Amino acid sequence: MLDPGAEDLPPIPGKRYFTIGEVGQLCAVKPHVLRYWEQEFPQLQPVKRRGNRRYYQRHEVELIRTIRRLLYIEGYTISGACNQLAAESSQT
Prior knowledge:
single chain; mainly alpha; Multidrug-efflux Transporter Regulator, Chain: A, Domain 2; three-stranded antiparallel β-sheet; 4 helices; 3 strands
C-alpha cells in the first residue's frame, strides 16, 4: 500500500525488532502516543520482554505508519481508523 505521508518518513531498516524510541523516529510519532495506540488498536501488539520493554516487528511499524496516515493525513477518528483497518484486513 502506498502511504501518501510516507515520503517524509525514513526507510525502515532491515532489523527484526525495533524499540519504542526507534519506532517513534521511523513513524514521526511520540512514544506516549504509541503506548496509547496499543490500547486503542487491537492489531498493534508489540512483544514485551526484559522488564516490560516493547519491541516492535516490521509489520507493526508498517501498521503504525498506516494508523498515522489515517489519523493525521486522512482525518479519521480513532474509531473510524479502527473500522478502516478492520475493513482492509477483511478484504485481504
